[in-house]
């Protein structure tokens, strides 16, 4: 016999459908309905709420559905992980602090767009020097392709990627190669297609955020909703052996209770890590610049392992590219770049012209290591949320891309790459969706065009998210990775990561060991880390940087003299003061 259970305090009647046969369920005082039924291990099932029509009942999927083989609008399917599918028993895991993370979207990473196809590229990532693969959301969402942030059945794995068994194969293959796996989890809102949870109970609150109605984590009857979130998060790490989660936009988790849900999740994740005998990490995406997020719980913080740091992205990108519109408005200078790299946040109780108010809080760099902040030159957001989804590689020179990489990868922060950036991929990463409902599809496309038209873009230039070509254009072109400057950039990325891993000065996690020099007018910037200096020329003309020593890695052809190093326009050199050997990588 199989026990079926569902939390559904709202309906007066709940019946269980197993393979087309209806069964009565018994309600308890806590709003849970239960029934024991003889069912096959892979039986299809769902729930019928407040309907007496036995001939044509509307069967809804299980809010905790383990599998949705026919999409988010259809019946769920029983599924349990097969213990014999795993071969990673000797995987000891590792913390993400100080690692190099590679963010990828399963559907566009390969032509096939599946978990199994990702496995075929893992050796490439190992050769590149990657430590962790971070998967953009793989939970079940409406349609065949999309970014995954509009999930509605958080426990199930998106079937077009290969479903739960294929995800197990991917994570197991990663662990056999020494790669950790992080899963992007979205707990701040639900998607518009296939969201039946409000029919079961008060999953949504009276508040809202930019993506829709907020999740009920602090209003009446929130305890079971919080448990729904916590159990889902733990499931990815327990049942699928993920090494941690990236938590989407945690600033949208408005929690007025005394114990914040992130603190609760941190404590339960630590307990699970002890149980499974390996480290488990939580990375929060937050735009608050609040160090309490990454402060340990025993010091009054929420206990997240690390957080995304958009200030570092903005400072590097704006300084190199010259873009200063929108939220780049306070950045763009080398002074801003220096302040951000040496303090972790640029806005730390300072005025933000984009927000028209003070923003952030200072980071105590004596107690919080830099490795709790993620540095990156690219993310899915920073590309896909641009009007036409253009990458920096479509607007900058390869030298500028190399300078950005050197600053991010050789900084003290935990480093992250977005798929394809390492070779300057020519593919855009555009916003795409495949909502099956015509009205929703039309609203999504029109809303996207209207949003950017208000900022001066021609609406006709905005890609239609529902057009299949928008999705196909966003797939990586693997045949270009060794072509010309693409190949040269990829080799430089590999060498940057190798240096980061092999040199203790470049893996030091403390910001008090980072010093910078710069010349705003000459457009050179030097980041000193022990015996190493990362000297960068952000301008188009050659400059003399007052740094000397042996060049161990470079983009371009630096010329070292007794007093300085001459850098070509848009180039960098890693100079080691105590060495007399080394040469630029051939690019």
Automatic annotation (TrEMBL):
This is Malto-oligosyltrehalose trehalohydrolase. Residues 58-84 are annotated as: Disordered. The keyword Mitochondrion does not apply. NCBIfam families: trehalose_TreZ. Its EC number is 3.2.1.141. Belongs to the glycosyl hydrolase 13 family. Residues 58-76 have a biased composition (Basic and acidic residues). The active site is at residues 248, 285. It comes from the Bacteria. It comes from Mycolicibacterium flavescens (Mycobacterium flavescens). Signal peptide: none annotated. It is an enzyme of class 3 (hydrolase). Pathway: Glycan biosynthesis; trehalose biosynthesis. The record marks 381 as: Transition state stabilizer. It catalyses: hydrolysis of (1->4)-alpha-D-glucosidic linkage in 4-alpha-D-[(1->4)-alpha-D-glucanosyl]n trehalose to yield trehalose and (1->4)-alpha-D-glucan.
């Amino acid at each position: 016999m199989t026990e079926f259970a569902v939390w559904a305090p709202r309906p007066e009647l709940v019946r269980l459908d197993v393979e087309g046969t209806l069964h009565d369920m018994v309600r308890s005082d806590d709003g849970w309905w239960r029934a024991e039924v003889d069912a096959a291990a892979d039986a299809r099932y769902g729930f019928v709420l407040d309907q007496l029509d036995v001939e044509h009942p509307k069967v809804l999927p299980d809010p905790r559905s383990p599998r949705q083989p026919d999409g988010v609008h259809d019946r769920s399917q029983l599924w349990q992980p097969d213990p014999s599918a795993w071969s990673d028993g000797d995987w000891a895991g590792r913390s993400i602090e100080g690692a190099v993370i590679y963010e990828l979207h399963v559907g566009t990473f390969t032509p096939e767009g599946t978990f199994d196809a990702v496995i075929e590229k893992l050796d490439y990532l190992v050769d590149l020097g990657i430590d962790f693969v971070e998967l953009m959301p793989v939970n079940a969402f409406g349609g065949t392709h999309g970014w995954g942030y509009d999930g509605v059945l958080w426990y199930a794995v998106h079937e077009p990627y290969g479903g739960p068994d294929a995800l197990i194969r991917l994570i197991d293959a990663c662990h056999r190669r020494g790669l950790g796996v992080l899963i992007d989890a979205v707990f701040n809102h639900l998607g518009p297609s296939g969201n039946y949870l409000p029919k079961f109970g008060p999953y949504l609150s009276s508040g809202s955020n930019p993506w829709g109605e907020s999740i009920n984590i602090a209003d009446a009857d929130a305890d079971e909703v919080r448990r729904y979130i916590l159990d889902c998060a733990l499931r990815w790490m327990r049942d699928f052996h993920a090494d941690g989660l990236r938590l989407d936009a945690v600033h949208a988790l408005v929690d007025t209770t005394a114990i914040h849900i992130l603190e609760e999740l941190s404590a339960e994740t630590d307990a699970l890590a002890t149980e499974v005998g390996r480290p488990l990490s939580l990375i929060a995406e937050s735009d608050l610049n609040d160090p309490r997020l990454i402060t340990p719980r025993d010091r009054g913080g929420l206990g997240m392992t690390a957080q995304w740091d958009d200030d570092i992205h903005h400072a590097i990108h704006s300084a190199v590219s010259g873009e200063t519109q929108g939220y780049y408005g306070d950045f763009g200078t080398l002074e801003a770049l220096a302040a951000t790299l040496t303090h972790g946040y640029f806005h730390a109780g300072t005025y933000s012209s984009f927000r028209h108010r003070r923003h952030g809080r200072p980071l105590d760099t004596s107690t919080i290591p830099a490795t709790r902040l993620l540095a990156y030159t690219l993310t899915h957001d920073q590309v896909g949320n641009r009007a036409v989804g253009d990458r920096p590689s479509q607007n900058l020179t390869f030298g500028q891309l190399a300078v950005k990489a050197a600053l991010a990868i050789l900084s003290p922060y935990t480093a992250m790459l977005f798929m394809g950036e390492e070779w300057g991929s020519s593919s855009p990463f555009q916003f795409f969706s495949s909502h099956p409902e015509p009205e929703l599809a039309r609203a999504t496309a029109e809303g996207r065009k209207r949003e950017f038209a208000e900022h001066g873009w021609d609406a006709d230039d905005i890609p239609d998210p529902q057009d299949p070509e928008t999705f196909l254009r966003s797939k990586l072109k693997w045949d270009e990775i060794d072509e010309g400057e693409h190949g040269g950039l990829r080799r430089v990325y590999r060498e940057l990561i190798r240096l980061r891993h092999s040199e203790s000065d470049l893996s030091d996690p403390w910001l008090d060991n980072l010093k910078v020099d710069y010349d705003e007018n000459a457009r050179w910037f030097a980041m000193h880390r022990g015996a190493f200096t990362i000297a960068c020329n952000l301008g188009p003309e050659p400059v003399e940087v007052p740094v000397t020593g042996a060049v161990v890695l470079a983009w371009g052809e630096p010329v070292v003299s007794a007093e300085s190093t001459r850098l070509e326009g848009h180039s960098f050199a890693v100079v080691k003061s105590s060495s007399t050997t080394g040469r630029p990588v051939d690019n």
